[in-house]
Amino acid sequence: MKKLSVSICAILLIAITNTYAQLTPQPSSTETIVQGFGLGKINLTYSRPNVRGRKIFGGMEPYGVVWRTGANSATVIKFTDEVTMEGKKIPAGEYGFFSIPGENEWTIIINKQPNQWGAYSYKEADDFLRFKVKTEHLPALTETMTLAFTNVTPATCDLQMSWEHSGFTVHLATDVDAKVMARIDSAMNTAKKPYYDAIIYYYNNNKDMTKALAWANELEKDKALPPFVPKLWKARVLLKKGDKAAAITTAQEGVKIAAENKSDEYVRLNKEVIAQAKK
């Protein structure tokens, strides 16, 4: 009977919300974040309640009780590619993102049922993953509950929650390097070789600069690009390769070409290479 009552309550809440949602604004606004990550994306949808003078954690949201990590419908997180959360693998898919607040630590829950109203029909048996993270005690009040992706790189990012004076951080990662390297190798065997993208990836990820320099030489032959673009990347690769004299000469050529083409940005970028090489 208890389970039936909970289910009926959830259905009634959904029906009421659907009836009146268009007449009045929701007290807790909905936000959807689409974060590019690796070669895919993370989609996060949640509703953002406000403090409004209430005691939240340890009060309105009790410690030790499963929370929807937001308001209204349970928070939903979707991965287009496999990721890891705190080192634990999660396949691509859509999940419910629940949590259990604690004064000193939070339990983060990835649940296989994404479409739920609140935590009324939540079942631990449907959990895909649980892990704990430290509670972050925030000195400044966060009035509106906030989930945000921070410290984003191609292969790592943090998912941070803050509300009232409490928060947590979850570390995510994706194994993008092996996929990118395989794609570059495959594309280099085609007629249309991706020299530009490959050089940038090799440069930013400290790969083989000898190979990147050979590609930079080929890129200079590409008439589709403004000539000061290949010069900049060739100068950068030479500098990272350790050939400062050649980097300076190439960057000086890049400054001249960029100035002739009235590209102040590339004049500045090439001058930055020269300054770094002279240190």
Radius of gyration: 26 Å
- Work out the helicity level: 25-40%
Question: Poorly predicted ranges (pLDDT <50, ≥5 residues)?
Answer: 1-12, 14-20
Task: Compute the number of helices.
Answer: 7
Approximately how much beta-strand content do the residues carry?
Answer: 25-35%
Q: What spatial order of strands do you see in the largest sheet?
A: 1-2-3-6-7-8
Q: In the residues, how many domains can be counted?
A: 2
Main β-sheet, in a few words? 6 strands, antiparallel
Q: How many runs of DSSP E, i.e. beta strands?
A: 10
**Envelope shape:** elongated
Provide a descriptive summary of the structure in words.
By secondary structure, this protein is of the alpha+beta class. The chain has two domains: 26-173, no CATH class; 177-277, Tetratricopeptide repeat domain (Serine Threonine Protein Phosphatase 5, Tetratricopeptide repeat), CATH 1.25.40. Helix content is 34%, strand content 32%. It has seven helices and ten strands. It has helices at 2-20, 177-187, 195-204, 209-219, 228-241, 244-260, 264-277, and strands at 29-37, 40-48, 71-79, 83-85, 88-90, 93-100, 105-111, 127-134, 136-150, 156-173. The strands form two sheets. A six-stranded antiparallel β-sheet has the order 1-2-3-6-7-8, with no helix packed on it. A hairpin with a 4-residue loop joins β6 and β7. The longest helix is centred in the first third of the chain and has 19 residues, at 2-20. It is elongated, with a radius of gyration of 26 Å.
